[in-house]
Amino acid sequence: MHPLVLSIPRFIQLGMPLPPLKPMAQSRRGVTQILEVQVCPLVVAIPRFIQLMVPLPPLKTDGSITAWGDSDAGGAGAPSGSGYTKIYSTRHAFAALKADGSITAWGNSNAGGTGAPSGSGYTKIYSTDSAFAAFKTNGSITAWGNSDTGGTGAPSGSGYTKIYSTYGAFAAV
């Protein structure tokens, strides 16, 4: 079977059959090209930020957290207790959001493992390589972690609706 080359000109669903392959005519020198390759789109959903260094620790059904691995990267020091609903990560730290909107962070202090905001009312956390930014219900933003990657300098005020992040910076609208 002749290998297929994939491109992304249009969308298909998983399980959809590939377009048919067409036999080609013989050239003037007698060489026959076996197949004309029909392109088949490949659709891949890629998360906003991919963490390759440390897997996210699992949340148990009661919202408690178990972490393991390199202690300098959040493998130790996970918070005790329950009620956590989401876990976010930088390269070497984790931040967990509780149902009441409070945040607990652990891991490398240069990557956001310390300095999480106190209080409650936070709804979502975003991350760069080594900093976190968290939304409050009023649209205000709090950042912590490495200042070179967005851990300081969050905008003041409220009313923000979305945070975007790259490897080393945040932007908000």
List strands and helices in order, with pairings.
Blueprint: E1 6-7, E2 40-41, E3 84-89, E4 93-98, E5 103-107, E6 122-127, E7 131-136, E8 141-145, E9 163-165, E10 170-172
Parallel strand pairs: 1-2
Antiparallel strand pairs: 3-4, 4-5, 6-7, 7-8, 9-10
Structural overview:
The N terminus is likely disordered. The strands form four sheets. Strands 3-4-5 form a three-stranded antiparallel beta sheet, with no helix packed on it. A three-stranded antiparallel beta sheet has the order 6-7-8, with no helix packed on it. Strands 1-2 form a two-stranded parallel ribbon. It contains no helices and ten strands. 0% of the residues lie in helices and 25% in strands. It is globular. The relative contact order is 0.11. By secondary structure, it is an all-beta fold. The chain has two domains: 45 residues, no CATH class; 102 residues, Regulator of chromosome condensation 1/beta-lactamase-inhibitor protein II (Methylamine Dehydrogenase, Chain H).
